[in-house]
Amino acid sequence: MLIFLYSVLILAGKPGTGKTHTARDIFNALRRSKRVSVVASTAKAARLWRPWVRAQTLHSFCGLLDGRYTAAEILERFRTDPALQKTKERILETEVLIMDEISITSACTWDLAEEVIRKLRSSYEYFGGIQVCANYFIWEGKWTNQDDLRLCETLQIH
Fold first, then answer.
1. Which pLDDT does position 85 carry in this prediction?
2. In sequence order, what are the residues at sequence separation of 6 or more whose Cβ sits closer than 8 angstroms to the Cβ of residue 128?
3. Which of 5, 54, 105, 126 is 20 to 30 A from 151 in CA distance terms?
């Protein structure tokens, strides 16, 4: 199932339906003409993208660290910590963000990442105008838990 809203494309379905394969096809089609970054919910899922691309966790891509900081605190760290300059540059340069196995990411983390990216890019657009392609696992074709439902509300999926 493909769901396209705003600048977000969600590849949704059960295991084995080709979500990651489709995401890789999208990556291969776009990487020559766009600056594409790949993130995943876990380091294990990110490693599955090698050797094609150096994927990383969503937390690492956005500078969220261990998730204990607010968006304001993270943005302040971007302003003051020279170690985060490469992370900031990567966010500012990214045109397409492929999010693999994102269904295990909480809606709170999704919201925090979106806010940090949007504010870092000084944009009012969702995810700062970055086109997002998210691979989202659905049990039996349904949204199944509170985080799924919250993410649906965030994306305005009904």
1. 93
2. 91, 117, 118, 119, 120, 121, 122
3. 54
Bin 7: left if φ > 0, else alpha if -120 < ψ < 50, else beta. Answer: alpha
Q: In this structure, are residues 98 and 38 in contact, taking their beta carbons and an 8 Å threshold?
A: yes
- The pLDDT of residue 122 is 96
CATH topology of domain 2-155: Rossmann fold (3.40.50)
Contact 18, 140 (CB under 8 A): no
All residues at 6 or more sequence positions from 142 whose CB lies less than 8 Å from its CB, including other chains:
none
CA angle 135, 136, 137 (to 5 degrees): 125
Domain boundaries, the chain: 2-155
Tell me the percentage of the chain whose pLDDT exceeds 70: 83
Q: What is the rounded distance in angstroms from the CA atom of residue 5 to the CA atom of residue 16? A: 24
Which runs of consecutive H residues, i.e. helices, occur in 33-156? 43-47, 58-62, 71-80, 85-93, 107-120, 146-155
Residue carrying structure tokens 């074709």: 141
Nearest to 137 by CA among 111, 109, 100, 96: 100
pLDDT at 112 exceeding the cut of 60: yes
